[in-house]
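Database export, one record per block. Field names are fixed; values are copied verbatim from the stored entry.
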Amino acid sequence: MNITIGIGDLKVCKAPDVLITYALGSCVGVCLLDAAVGVGGLSHIMLPESNATSAAATPMRFADTALPILIQQMERMGASRARLKAKIAGGATMFATASDKFNIGERNIEAVKKFLNANRIPILAQDIGLDYGRTQLFYPATGVMEIRAAAKGNKMF
């Protein structure tokens, strides 16, 4: 079964289900997998960091609040934090005039990598940056992350 993750949302599943998210522009899609138990998760990160007000209302939009929730939900399904591996995609610069301050894609990538590094979760593959949107599919049964981009074709990681 295909499970769709909306913008600023996350889902977890067991193989053979497939996780899919659309419209990764400046957003970053984070796939986590515990291959030993076949539990996978995908989070569609909109923004790098929350503040107290935004996190309370919409914690799954932010790297600093969504990724801990993703890990907790995976652990409830039998995953072990110590076995998690990551694959990430997105973080594009969607507007040519984006200044460093407003380059949300780059800031999202940095926030995701900072969290994963702090939690000792290795990134096994990435398709990040550049200037185009992506659709991300994650197959927990195989650990494969598929990226579809209209002008760039499909890639498997």
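Remark 1: The mean pLDDT is 93.
Remark 2: The longest strand covers residues 18-24.
End of record.
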